[in-house]
Amino acid sequence: MNVKDRITHLKTLIDKYNYEYYALDDSSVSDNEFDLLMNELLALEKAHPELVTKDSPTVRVGGIVQEKFSKVVHEIPMLSLGNVFSSSELRDFDNKIRKEVEKYTYTAELKIDGLSVSLKYLDGFLFQGATRGDGSVGEDITENVKTINSIPLKIPFITPVEVRGEIFMPNKSFNDLNAQKVRLGEEPFKNPRNAAAGSVRQLNPQIARKRNLDVFIYYLMDRTLTDNHYSALQLVKSWGFHVNPLTQFCPTIDDVINFVHDIDNKRIELPYEIDGVVIKVNEFSLYEKIGYTSKFPKWAIAYKFAAEEVVTVLEDIRFQLGRTGVVKPVAELSPLMISGSLVSRATLHNEDFCMDRDIHVGDHVVVRKAGEIIPEVLRVIPEKRTGVEVPFAMISNCPICHSQLQRKESEADYYCMNPNCEGKHLEGLIHFASRDAYNIDGLGERILTELFNDAYIKNISDIFILKERYADLIQKERFGIKSVDNLLAAIEVSKKNPLDKLIFGLGIRHVGAKIAKVLASTYEKLVLLQQASMEDLLEIPDIGSAIAKSVIDYFQDEKNKFEIDRLEKLGLNMASPKIFENRTSYFSGKTVVLTGGLDSYSRKDATDLIEQLGGNVASSVSKNTDLIVAGKDAGSKLNKGQELGIRTINEAEFIELIMRES
Prior knowledge:
Helix content is 37%, strand content 20%. The chain is an alpha+beta fold and 662 residues long. The longest helix is centred in the N-terminal third of the chain and has 20 residues, at 3-22.
């Protein structure tokens, strides 16, 4: 057998054994035999690099160290799921399904406590792996997912396809990793989920490879290949993907409930962390009729297991100021593990909550995670008191500016009413730059606090003139030229954010992300929202009197008017995409494909601009493609476009076109 044939034979064997181990949970060879085959393949490919292919198992050793992760726009949003916590709530979910459709079944899957991932294949080869991010935009982690053995590098299906799943760290890998960290004097990970997320986001793929991650696939996005979810999972399993072996077809809600109880009883024995069971209607044809909310599909639900309750000591109570001026008590606890996480703080909600439960500093308290997310104090254990405990007392002054707090009528919360309170301003800035609002990369809480304390940023508009402080910024510790350049570039890119992101980021009381979308879809421009009357707003579905009054009050404030005017002059997008609906541009009706990296725009920003100008952005090149925008390192899409004779422009030409049409 010549070298080329031996390499092909080794790759076939290794892929076969990987499939047995991960997809079938049944390996026919020992770990030692597997390692010998892999080492032989590595040696042969090192001696004959011209024979290395992109689907070789040796690719998993780890690729080039990356400088940062690029953004990936999800063509179909990665939605989260609604939660239920009891059998009766599961029956309520079933009743809602029955009101919409007559005949249906379910698939029940373990809810893995890990990190959601999107995997895309082209011509049968893995070409992109991305995190969920905010559901619309994630991060490109392709090089890292290639190091996960349960993710096939090649599948027997050449049509473009996307699967989604959950990357996780098995308990054994987690324990081994933390034992190593302790030996090295490093801080151990708090739980397997954090360890998995931290491993996936390593810029060096070789570090990710050593963490021994795994993945379970739970979605096949192409619903034309089969008519139901359960058979879709069997199909992707036949392609070599790892599907959870405990996944179960459930004809009725009673079968679902029995499955949930069975898993709850045995979950402690599982070799990985789970926090519930995901239930999905099986038949794809019913999904559109059952429908979606703005965040969740109505045809799926997550049953969350009862939160773990533990006892610890409430060592102190601190008061936390929010961006709206609300001041809330927070418990400082003796650190403890809850549901796999180290917890040292918990919410106490408000004064009434503390008084009703007779909470004292020094009490032994029962703590749980509300929905296994936010730790909260449930109750005290008064029989453990020694007499030195101090009763809760609400403060009367703002913890930051010390002005008098006010408790609003019919509300349980106290507010700092000082319009010049720096604590409120800082919290508002942190909210504005956060992922769910304006999503400015590199401008997190720590950096913003430092720039706020340095008086570089005091108002939202100061963020967008930060480039005037360039010489000062590059002199600051932990900043440097490269990090400052990246931050300023991210700020410039953010100016193109959609209007709803700006409305939400402004921090108008009672206006969350969903209401911001409602307002942005109702008004063509921010100026029209500013001019809206109480009556206008109340005519909008989902807008009640409290929200309407808050919006009116915000836009009548002279300081807010001045700030919004300044933001507009600084170039922030103040319009909804709907203003482009009736105008004609070069992009109107055209199908555009973006390939390679752009310096001036993220993929999402470029997509938004094209769509606002009437174009459609496609993920692959075909005879229906009208234009290709080729950035740095453009690959197969560019080559295919050239073969088809499709017009191709570079980034400079794209910017010129956008500027001309905008």
